[in-house]
Design a protein that fits this description.
Strand content: 5-15%
Shape: globular
Membrane topology: Multi-pass membrane protein
Radius of gyration: 19 Å
Pfam families: CobD_Cbib
Order of helices and strands: HHHHHHHHHHEEH
Function: Converts cobyric acid to cobinamide by the addition of aminopropanol on the F carboxylic group.
Keywords: Cell membrane, Cobalamin biosynthesis, Membrane, Transmembrane, Transmembrane helix
Structural class: mainly alpha
Number of domains: 1
Family: Belongs to the CobD/CbiB family.
Length: 302
């Protein structure tokens, strides 16, 4: 029952306070990761073994420290809640996505491009209103999985050490997991470990999206479209999410100066401003569903 209560407390803290506007532990970790990468991959193109060593040095000591602190009587329960709170990005997701939808509604395309640029790594300067709405909707669906549901999953499975291990690994994937000359080999370990840690959560998220939207269409899109996507985890999440919303996502997008022709996802009309908010509602509804199931599980096995 303590896991159930700690999970609810962590979600409640995020709902009330959101992401810290000042110092954040993940920002400090990102700075540490940059220094480690400069040490192990100074000229770029480092070997896979260098990437494995760098990942271990960045993640394992902090995970072990979290486990040791969580064993201290009277401190462990507080650390559990704070670790989940620091790892969650639910309120932050809404704070980034809603201004995009609002700017689109007001017809301010320049502001909408700027706002959605905070959420995605693609080039947003030339996006039209549909492109902005598509980028925002895709980001909400994918980041809902990475920054919310996967953190909840690993917290329930392995407590504070589990959520710290996951969140740090996910951060390193975002920093090192690029398929370019600098990170192709060095970032291999970070990308693969993140894929492994997200494998089960992503499929639970895809199922959650399907259950809360147009279920039959979402399941069909997941089955037929997800295998065509490059990412083994983003594919199911985004295909099921697009189907649940009844919109068409995917298509061409420019990343770091290169045009990527991505497979189509979902079915239906192109997304609009309201679909960004519908995607947020899907994520929020999914969190409530997970918490309800967790409370039910806790009540049965208390």
């Amino acid at each position: 029952m303590s896991v159930v209560l700690s999970t609810c407390a962590g979600v409640a803290l995020d709902a009330v306070f959101g992401e810290s506007k000042g110092w954040h532990p993940l920002v400090a970790f990102g700075q540490l990761a940059e220094r480690i990468e400069q040490r192990f991959n100074p000229a770029g193109g480092g070997w896979r073994s260098h990437g494995v060593s760098a990942w271990c040095l960045a993640v394992l000591p902090l995970t072990l420290l979290t486990w040791l602190l969580s064993q201290i009587s009277g401190l462990g329960w507080a650390l559990e809640i704070l670790a989940l709170y620091a790892a969650l990005g639910l309120k932050s997701l809404g704070e980034h996505a809603r201004p995009v939808a609002q700017a689109l509604r007001l017809g301010d395309l320049a502001l909408a491009r700027e706002r959605v640029g905070y959420m995605v790594s693609r080039n947003t300067a030339a996006l039209d209103t549909t492109g902005v709405a598509r980028a925002g909707t895709e980001s909400v669906l994918e980041n809902g999985s990475d920054a919310v549901f996967a953190a909840l999953f690993w917290f329930v499975v392995a407590g504070a050490p589990g959520v710290v291990l996951y969140r740090l690994s996910n951060t390193l994937d975002a920093m090192w997991g690029y398929r370019n000359e600098r990170f192709e080999r060095f970032g291999w370990a970070a990308a693969k470990i993140d894929d492994v840690l997200n494998y089960l959560p992503a499929r639970l998220v895809a199922l959650t999206y399907a259950l809360l939207g147009r279920t039959a269409l979402a399941l069909r899109c997941w089955r037929t479209q997800a295998p065509q996507w490059d990412s083994p985890n983003a594919g199911p999440v985004m295909a099921a999410g697009a189907g649940a919303l009844g919109v068409s996502l995917g298509g061409a997008a420019e990343y770091h100066g290169e045009l990527h022709v991505r497979p189509d996802l979902g079915a239906g009309p192109a997304p609009k401003a309201r679909d960004i908010e519908r995607a947020l509602n899907l994520v929020n509804g999914g969190v409530l569903l997970w918490l309800a199931l967790l409370l039910l599980w806790g009540a049965v096995y208390a």
